[in-house]
Write a structure and sequence with these properties.
The chain is of the alpha/beta class. The chain has 14 helices and nine strands. It has an eight-stranded parallel barrel, surrounded by six helices. Helix 7 runs parallel beside helix 9, helix 11 packs parallel to helix 12 and helix 12 packs parallel to helix 14. Bound molecules: ligand G3I.
């Protein structure tokens, strides 16, 4: 590549930097991609690519608030992860998925856990191919707030430190969910006002601890049943349906910059559940409750996943509200064997390709996260008791047809 080409690409990247959405942490310069000559469309959603959120039509409710609990601050210096030179930065290597994504200011990520990061092969694959990591379990209530007066951020801090050392964005998961809650919560006996303070202080303490290090938070996770009714969660019972709006309000009070996401499964296409999610977020916007987007988890099977058409239609109607649509937890169950047969892997690759294609086309989708890096560490076999091969890399960390399909898409798409 000539110096002129290199200069032109750097100018393009700088121009994208100027148009970057207000919260994209500057991680794209961490791994210079000036070895590539593709000119592609930036995927950073901005007011030019979809409308601003509507002006609230109802008065914003005045919820009770709180101060964060005293808790240890995040100390990036406490961890000594050395930056990993992504495999594809060696001369002559083919560009990695993250390098191609970064040309579009697009995030490709996987969920992970701190105990995997000490495996050099795993760490190099993670940092080499992805520019985002999601906290699979490390930031959930049972881990970070195991006792009423005790917080333990060590697992999440390790993930953030690794991400910072490798120029990766972090997806925080999840501030409010009805699973993986500690006994002191699920067996607690409190008044409604006390429950409100407990939830408020948890959210503000966790979000404050990670302020400045989290690209987006799953503020509330999975509040609906598949029929579109609210799930009978601890928080619905103890506070009422307004717990959702309260959670977003408190997260915004704790961090004015991070993106605030409502995250859900089986609500990717057009169905009762996605309609319920759409009505929820539309109502929140009308009341001036701070929310930036919806997480479409995409936990699907080989057969019968949401079609590209309905996924795109759902994304587009969220874009019309001025909201982001992220693919946050994709995996595609094969359910048949530990290392699935060739034809199953081909079908699986097409399912990933369709979802990735919809995200690339939608004006408001700039995040694509798989729920795990390799089949070896997927949550699904433990959950079902059956072997499975749902992810982009096999048990040995080798790329599968699904990974190559995503790479090929980024290489080809404008
Ligand atoms: O931490 C304990 C450990 O101390 C104990 O020895 C061990 C015994 O089995 O269990 C460990 O807890 C496990 C936890 O993951 C941490 O590894 C739980 O048993 C296990 O049920 C839990 O599974 C997680 C699951 O959420 C819980 O429902 C999965 O790893 C995680 O991938 C999965 O992720 C969820 C998202 O958060 C929300 N969307 C759906 C997605 C899949 O269910």
């Amino acid at each position: 590549m000539t110096a002129i080409h290199r200069a032109f690409l750097l100018v393009m990247l700088c121009l994208w930097g100027l148009s970057a959405c207000r919260r994209a942490p500057e991680i794209f310069s961490a791994h210079p991609t000036d070895t590539l000559t593709l000119t592609v469309r930036s995927k950073t959603p901005s007011s030019e690519t979809f409308p601003a959120k509507p002006t609230p039509v109802y008065p914003t409710p005045k919820f009770p608030t709180c101060q964060p609990d005293p808790a240890p601050a995040f100390n990036p210096g406490a961890y000594s992860f050395m930056p990993i030179r992504p495999v594809s930065n060696r001369e002559g290597d083919a560009p990695s998925l993250r390098q191609l994504a970064e040309l579009r200011r697009f995030y490709v990520g996987v969920s992970t856990a701190p105990q995997f990061l000490d495996d050099p092969g795993y760490a190099e694959l993670l940092a080499g191919q992805f520019n985002m990591l999601a906290a699979e379990n490390a930031m959930k209530w049972e881990v970070v707030h195991p006792k009423p007066e005790r917080y333990d951020f060590s697992q999440g801090d390790a993930l953030v430190a690794f991400a910072r050392a490798n120029g990766m964005a972090v997806y925080g998961h999840a501030l409010v969910w009805d699973l993986q809650q500690p006994d002191w919560l699920t067996r607690g006996e409190y008044s409604r006002e006390e429950w409100i303070q407990i939830l408020c202080r948890h959210i503000k303490t966790v979000v404050s601890h990670y302020r400045g290090y989290i690209y987006a938070w799953d503020v509330v996770n999975e509040a609906f049943q598949n029929n579109g009714a609210l799930r009978d969660t601890l928080w619905l019972r103890k506070i009422g349906p307004e717990y959702i709006a309260m959670a977003f309000q408190w997260a915004r009070e704790a961090d004015p910059q991070t993106l605030l996401i409502y995250n859900e499964f089986f609500a990717e296409g057009l169905n009762q559940k996605s309609q319920a999610v759409y009505s929820l977020v539309q109502g929140m916007l009308q009341q001036g409750i701070p929310i930036d987007g919806v997480g479409l988890q995409m936990h699907v099977w080989l057969w019968g996943p949401p079609t590209r058409h309905e996924l795109l239609a759902n994304m587009r109607r969220l874009a019309e509200l001025g909201l982001l649509a992220h693919i946050t937890e994709m995996d595609v169950r094969t359910q048949y064997s530990r290392d699935s047969q060739a034809e199953e892997l081909t079908v699986q690759a097409e399912v990933y390709r369709q979802a990735f294609s919809a995200c690339l086309e939608a004006p408001n989708c700039n995040v694509f996260v798989a729920w795990g890096l390799t089949d070896r560490y997927s949550w699904i076999p433990e959950h079902t008791g059956q072997p499975d091969a749902p992810l982009l890399f096999d048990r040995q960390g080798k790329p599968k047809p699904a990974f190559n399909a995503l790479l090929d898409m980024l290489r080809r798409s404008p």
